[in-house]
Write a structure and sequence with these properties.
By secondary structure, this protein is an alpha+beta fold. It has 2 domains: 47 residues, no CATH class; 150 residues, no CATH class. The chain is 22% helix and 28% strand.
Length: 231
């Protein structure tokens, strides 16, 4: 017996066996879960696995592995448009109207770090990946546009930012973590072609130096609409 297995058996003992049954009558199949208690190493008779017991098991596994814990709680900010925390898929969608943000760049680009006024932005976290789209006005409507930044395509390339993940998964904490991961990273290169009409580097440098509002007429339409994202 390996040392790891010995440590496990010293701490844990067999409690129950779960047997899964599946039909072949439908495309995906229907499932029935049966629980059999184990007492003194002997497996007992089968009985339906209750939702209460299953929920406790899922909660235990998720709490020991943060990657599986997709639950959110707490006050829901007004700018949250959509939330899905189901185990087989998770999505959180929120937005900010036009605002000023600190932006950072690698030295080779010769673009100064500084404050820049950006258009309204829609943030989507789907199964652990971040996407960002721009919109015109104070709140997203039907038409979305490509985010006018480097390192952004359908999925944002997050790189240099070092931000500790929140221990408490409130809406505010999770949203703040994702935004910091994006805005504290250094922009470095174009991904998926030029996202605006014109030279992105020159426009970005000008906006940082002058502080003028972002010219939304240079935005290019995105491949997705708000309706497609909120489903």
């Amino acid at each position: 017996m390996s040392d790891v297995l010995k440590q496990i058996t010293d701490i844990y003992h067999p409690y129950a066996a779960i047997i899964a049954y599946k039909t072949e009558s439908t495309c995906e199949g229907d499932y029935y879960l049966e629980k059999r208690d184990i007492v003194n190493g002997v497996m007992g008779a089968g009985k339906p696995l209750t939702e209460e017991v299953l929920a406790k098991m899922v909660k235990s596994v998720a709490s020991s592995n943060p990657q599986l814990d997709k639950s959110l709680y707490g006050v829901i900010p007004e700018n949250v448009l959509y939330c899905d925390t189901r185990m087989d898929g998770s999505k959180l969608v929120w937005y900010h109207g036009p605002e000023e943000r600190n932006v950072f760049f690698i030295r080779e680009l010769n673009i100064p770090n500084g404050k820049m006024k950006v258009p309204g932005l829609l943030y989507i976290v789907h199964n652990g990946s971040l996407s960002i789209y721009a919109f015109k006005g104070k709140k997203p409507k039907g038409t979305l546009y490509r985010a006018p930044f480097m390192n952004t395509t359908d999925n944002v390339c997050l790189g240099s930012a070092k931000v500790r993940k929140p221990t408490e998964r409130t809406f505010v904490n999770v949203i703040d973590w994702w935004e910091k991961m994006f805005w504290l990273s250094e922009f470095s290169h174009l991904s998926g072609g030029n996202p605006i009409k014109g030279n992105l580097a020159l426009l970005t440098k000008r906006l940082i130096e002058t502080g003028e509002p972002f010219p939304t007429d240079v935005l290019k339409p995105a491949s997705k609409t708000l309706k497609e994202i909120l489903k």
